[in-house]
Specification:
By secondary structure, this protein is of the alpha+beta class. 13% of the residues lie in helices and 24% in strands. A nine-stranded mixed barrel has the order 3-4-5-6-7-8-9-10-12.
Length: 289
């Protein structure tokens, strides 16, 4: 029996199975009854409290306006509805179309991109930490991201040296109890979040990770992309909490599982559900290959 997504989660064609394994070392403090923890240990399984990057959007450049118009999402108030017409939210949150008519990369199981993975709730992320690197494994779409902590820094011409990546290239270092991560080399096809905000290959992302408690991990991001936005764009603060023990099993299996988006399955879902719901017809006799 598959577990259901929490109420209010953005819909998608993929089945959501949230199964996670907790591996965060905690030590009981016998003197004051509190739980002590290593603030530089981010390992474990966490789940964030945000669905999107930030509704306070900077002004677009002319190129940013063009790319924004070309990205057609299906999240938010449906375009043309009274709620969309009267909303005070940024237009990016009130221009949605039926899913069959969007061009969201997820509809064809393309990679989501780093910022979208980091703010998508309710999918958990497992963090595995070594002295040389931190690996983040995202259960939804079964994506992986590496933060190098071996002292390297990003070259200024990272976009020329390497192939662009949907998750970019990341290097991190500690400033006290805060892990500061710089990422560059993004694939410009990625969206900032599911509302269709664009980013370019020139984008740079700064993340500030801080473990503020035994069960709490805080993230603040700043996206700098002068090709798309006139000023840097701060994220809304993201708070991750350790995944509850009672939610970490799937039958007899304990641990996160590969909740992949399979192109063949997504295409079948599009033909039999998403397209007909958008008025594009239902082909007779359609069945799974």
């Amino acid at each position: 029996m598959k577990r259901m997504k929490p109420t209010g989660a953005p819909p998608c064609g993929m089945l959501m199975i949230q199964v996670v394994l907790l591996s965060v070392p905690l030590v009981a403090d016998a003197q004051n009854g509190q739980t002590r923890f290593d603030s530089r240990d981010l390992s474990g399984v966490w789940i964030g409290d945000q669905y999107a990057y930030n509704p306070e959007v900077p002004n677009f450049t002319e190129e940013g306006k063009r790319r924004f118009r070309n990205n057609i999402p299906s999240y938010g108030e449906e375009k043309g509805t009274p709620a969309a017409m009267t909303s005070e939210q940024h237009v990016g949150r009130r221009r949605s179309v039926p899913p069959a008519l969007n061009n969201d990369p997820v509809g064809q199981c393309n990679p989501l991109g780093l910022t979208r993975l980091l703010v998508f709730r309710p999918s958990p992320v497992e963090i595995i930490q070594t002295p040389e690197k931190i690996v983040q494994i995202f259960e939804w779409s079964w994506d992986l991201r590496v933060i190098w902590t071996d002292g390297r820094s990003l070259p200024d011409d990272v976009g020329d040296l390497y192939l662009p990546e949907f998750n970019g290239y990341s290097a991190g270092s500690w400033d006290g109890d805060t892990l500061i991560v710089e990422t560059a080399g993004f694939d410009p096809r990625a969206w900032v979040d599911h509302f269709g905000y664009p980013m370019s290959a020139d984008a740079r992302l700064e993340e500030r990770w801080r473990r503020s408690g035994p069960d709490t991990l805080e993230l603040q991001m700043t996206l700098t992309d002068p090709f798309i936005y006139e000023t840097p764009w701060d994220s809304a603060p993201v708070t991750y909490t350790r995944y509850p023990v009672e939610e970490m099993t799937y039958g007899d299996w304990v641990g996160i599982v590969p909740d992949r988006c399979v192109p063949e399955d997504e295409a079948f879902f599009n033909r039999t559900a998403r397209d007909p719901a958008g008025g594009l017809g239902f082909p007779s006799g359609d069945s799974r290959p």
